[in-house]
Specification:
about 230 residues, TIM Barrel, globular, Glycoside hydrolase domain-containing protein
């Protein structure tokens, strides 16, 4: 089991949850111009501390978002900028991971929020961005993961898999069905992202208390690459 929450909790709170709770992994937002939360705790020292305490970490990078998305994100891609932005954001994601002590062979997950996948031009631009981002991570020895929604952003990637090159190595899909599994109810072809390359965000906004510490988190079933920190 894994959890994600917008701002990384303090190492003391993480320790309480590790000793008393069911979770073994935590997702952390390491960078991207569209990252929505401040991260006062998220330092290389924090990574060392929580890793030594037994946590596995799932790095998330909130990159450029689609031009057809209805949001106020400061960084948007377009057909003309998708390739260059993907390459620069991919390099930035690796720099952010390295600064936190997340070494080569780590997986970093690109966060792509919901958008109108009925817009073919928009889908094409997003796939170009993802390809460039993935190639930038691969060139530096990192796994390229992807976070998206089964109704839109993840579906577009799944439909392109096997047709479009340089797509993500691992898929973290959001489907709020309450199923703590990466196999039961997998919404795409059963042959996709096999071999321990799936994460499933199955519930959001769960308020939980372990070791006297209460956090509001999203719940994830996890069977995919994580950060290499040791």
């Amino acid at each position: 089991m894994a959890f994600d929450t917008c701002t990384a909790p303090s190492s003391t709170r993480m320790s309480a949850w590790r000793s008393a709770g069911p979770y073994g992994a935590a997702a952390v937002y390491i960078g991207g111009r569209n990252r929505g939360c401040a991260q006062p705790q998220l330092t290389a020292s924090w990574v060392r501390s929580v890793s030594a305490g037994g946590w596995k970490l799932v790095p998330i990078y909130v990159g450029a978002q689609p031009p057809c998305q209805d949001s106020g994100n400061p960084e948007r891609l377009s057909a003309s900028t998708a390739a260059s932005l993907g390459a620069s954001d991919g390099a930035d994601a690796v720099a952010d991971a390295e600064a936190l002590g997340m070494r080569a062979s780590s997986a970093v997950y690109l966060d792509m929020e919901s958008y109108d996948t009925g817009d073919a031009a928009c889908v094409s631009a997003v796939l170009t961005y993802i390809q460039a981002w993935d190639k930038a991570l691969h060139a530096r020895g990192y796994w390229a993961g992807f976070y998206g929604f089964t109704s839109s952003s993840a579906a577009a990637v799944a439909h392109a898999e096997g047709v479009t090159p340089d797509l993500p190595d691992a898929l973290w899909y959001a489907r709020y069905d309450g199923a703590d599994s990466t196999t039961s109810g997998f919404p795409f072809s059963s042959g996709l992202w096999t071999g321990h390359r799936r994460g499933h965000q199955y519930q959001v906004g769960a308020k939980e208390t372990y070791g006297g510490v209460t956090l509001t988190v999203d719940r994830d079933a996890w069977d995919a690459p994580v950060a290499v920190t040791s």
